[in-house]
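Moderator note: this is an archived Q&A kept for reference. The question asked for a predicted structure of one protein chain; the sequence and the answer are reproduced below.
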Amino acid sequence: MSCIDSLVTPLTKVRHQLLYLVYGNQDVYRREAKFSILTVLSQAKNGERPAIRILTDRPDDYAGWPVDTVLLDEATLTRWQGTHGYHHRRKACAIAAGMQWAEKTLFVDTDTLFTRHPSQLFKFIEPNRSVMDRFEYDWKDVHQRPDYQKLGRDLRRHGVTPDNGFKLYNSGLCGVTDRDSALFEESIRLIDEWTLGGFEIHTIEQIALSYAMRERQVVEARKHVYHYFAEKRFFHAMQTYFFSQHGEQFSQRLVDLCSDVPRVKPFPSAWRRLKIKWKLRHQKGALRKVGRDLLYGSAAPEDPYYSVCRHEWWECASREILRWDESQQKKLLSQKSWPQQLPRPDKPEDEKVIMNYLKKRVAAR
């Protein structure tokens, strides 16, 4: 049974569409999708709004939003996951199912912010030319990693070696035409082949798609979007604050307000970063990283979206400390006041707050 079998939708075929996949009851992914859509609409001029389609098991979450929703029932989600328990297979199935509703489709991971209007990306999508989020690495550069050994054996059966390998792309954004169904037939077949007997790489889906695209031209989208997959905690904090302040009911005012939210990970000012670098000039390695993250959080500018990220910087520091052995942790955290090994934050009141936060995180491990 193919991905599009039993998927009933009244959608009209359009020239261009943005396609999202959102399922499950975690608020964070709903907020990601809505904020991503707001960044699209904030780029629109003269009321120009692209067709936006969301494949979801919770269509009521988007009532009143300028989107079309397609209901995914539990049976479809189960079938799309396949028999090997690889849930990212659903993404390949979602693109395969959704591409029939437009001449050109731009699939968008929910953790994507648009910094330019997507119409500029649709211009790159042509027969035998696709758009992907970004180039990540060549197969020859990763084939010896321990977690890639099983995949390497599977690829050798297809005649792939380090010398004749292929480029691997992040599929956070994927632009294709309605004639590209063969790409996803091959991708899904490879996903099933490469996850048989278990898998150690969570990005099998984008590796399979990259392999299927090996003979075609690929354009990177990174100049048009910001995919914050590696910095989610910071953006989740800002989005939670945004929607708590303004609600989730759609309005043009919500579109306008989204421009107040930083489109990049919030850093202290250049001057404060330079001061912190100077303060840490005698520190090296892990202790330098911990000190930097603690001081970055304390040096957040007086802006609500930066302020809600203070704890996320401290969380970065705590995760580093949790990698240390117990004696190293005790040496840093058992002191009565601020650790002597680290320079003090500019805000004296943060000293106690930071140390209480770190001690609580380490104690809860």
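Archived answer notes: DSSP finds 16 helices and nine strands in the chain.
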